[in-house]
């Protein structure tokens, strides 16, 4: 088959659990000893690795028939230079797609499910053999694209961080976060275990678990029925949702400004009063963070249409 594009196709992959263990323990035999010593099934690690490797090979073979291919492991994403005309294929899980999106600038991104039996794959609508059919549609700009809203944290130092699913603002470890929070003309001094800011894409993840837990606690504590929270928002929703985790009221701290929405006209602002260990990270990637210590100010805003996912 004649190649359909001179533009680059970037395949983003991830290490399997087995590869991570071998990196940690140096050999497969030592990795097996560690897993089996804990009573876990090492065969499952190997099966997952074999399946992922096989799907990776299929992806590379199909993509090579369509265009010029570059492969990158996801840990190198922060230092990879994407081109404006790149097409990105991500061999999942879902988190790998989200992590990839925040390093793009609107290039079409397509998620491939390496193991539909193992992973639900909300962001992975395609399987590897389907690339031969869907990518020509992408190149011809006939594929269905879904816009994705991002969250953006901007510090008074000029540093920024994007969140595709969510942002976490709080302590690095299991301690109290202390800060001033300003939203919709209200200002409070708070002590909590941190703040979650969720996008529409992330509304069925961390945000849902927090609200579900809060609802269940309220039911048990008050013996009153309460409806289950509906947090399922469209991926291009023009608003973000923030919630404060475990706010603690005291003589010097308040706990009323604990939930709300962020839009283009109404950002969320915080000033840290933590001496150390304050951080902001996104999408569960704790290694990629901003320091948020005493005096640091952060403004959380909406970035509509920042991502572009290929869907069915």
Helix/sheet category: alpha+beta
Order of helices and strands: EHHHEEHEHEEEEEEHEEEEEE
Number of separate strands: 16
Q: Give the quaternary arrangement of the chains.
A: single chain
CATH top level class name of the largest domain: Mainly Beta
Number of discrete helical segments: 6
Strand order within the widest beta sheet? 6-5-16-13-8-9
Helix content: 25-40%
Low-confidence sequence ranges:
none
CATH architecture classification of the largest domain: Sandwich
The whole-number mean of residue pLDDT values reads: 93
N- and C-termini, Cα separation: 24 Å
Please describe the biggest sheet, giving its number of strands, its sense, and whether it closes into a barrel: 6 strands, antiparallel
Instruction: Write out the CATH superfamily name of the largest domain.
Output: Probable inorganic polyphosphate/atp-NAD kinase, domain 2
Strand content: 25-35%
Q: What's the overall geometry?
A: globular
Might you state the CATH topology name of the largest domain? Tumour Suppressor Smad4
* Total domain units: 2
Task: Tell me the Rg in angstroms.
Answer: 22 Å
Task: Show the helix and strand layout.
Elements: E1 8-13, H1 17-25, H2 28-37, H3 42-66, E2 68-73, E3 87-91, H4 94-101, E4 109-112, H5 131-139, E5 144-155, E6 160-163, E7 166-171, E8 177-183, E9 186-192, E10 195-198, H6 206-222, E11 240-244, E12 259-262, E13 268-272, E14 278-282, E15 285-291, E16 297-311
Parallel strand pairs: 1-2, 1-3, 3-4
Antiparallel strand pairs: 5-6, 5-16, 7-10, 7-14, 8-9, 8-13, 10-11, 11-12, 13-16, 14-15
Helix pairs in contact: 3-5
């Amino acid at each position: 088959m004649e190649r359909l594009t001179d533009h680059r196709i970037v395949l983003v992959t991830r290490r399997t659990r087995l590869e991570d263990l071998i990196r940690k323990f140096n050999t497969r035999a030592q990795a097996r000893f560690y897993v089996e010593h804990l009573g876990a099934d090492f065969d499952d690690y190997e099966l997952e690795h074999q399946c992922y490797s096989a799907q990776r090979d299929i992806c590379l073979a199909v993509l090579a028939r369509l265009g010029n291919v570059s492969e990158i492991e996801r840990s190198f994403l922060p230092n990879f230079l994407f081109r404006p005309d790149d097409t990105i294929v991500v061999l999942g899980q879902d988190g790998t797609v989200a992590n990839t999106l925040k390093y793009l600038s609107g290039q079409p991104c397509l998620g491939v499910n390496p193991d539909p039996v193992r992973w639900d794959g909300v962001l992975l609508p395609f399987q590897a053999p389907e690339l031969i059919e869907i990518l020509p549609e992408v190149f011809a700009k006939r594929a269905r694209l879904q816009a994705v809203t991002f969250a953006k944290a901007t510090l008074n130092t000029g540093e920024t961080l994007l969140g595709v699913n969510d942002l976490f603002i709080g302590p690095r470890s299991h301690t109290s976060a202390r800060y001033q929070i300003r939203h919709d003309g209200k200002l409070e001094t708070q002590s909590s275990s941190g703040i979650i800011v969720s996008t529409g894409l992330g509304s069925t993840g961390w945000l849902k678990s927090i609200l579900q837990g809060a609802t269940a606690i309220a039911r048990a504590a008050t013996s009153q029925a309460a409806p289950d929270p509906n947090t399922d928002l469209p991926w291009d929703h023009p608003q973000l949702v923030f919630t404060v985790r475990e706010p603690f009221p005291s003589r010097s701290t308040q706990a009323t400004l604990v939930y709300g929405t962020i839009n283009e006209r109404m950002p969320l602002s915080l000033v840290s009063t933590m001496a150390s260990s304050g951080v902001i990270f996104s999408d569960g990637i704790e290694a990629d963070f901003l320091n948020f210590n005493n005096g640091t100010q952060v403004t959380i805003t909406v970035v509509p249409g920042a991502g572009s996912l290929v869907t069915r």
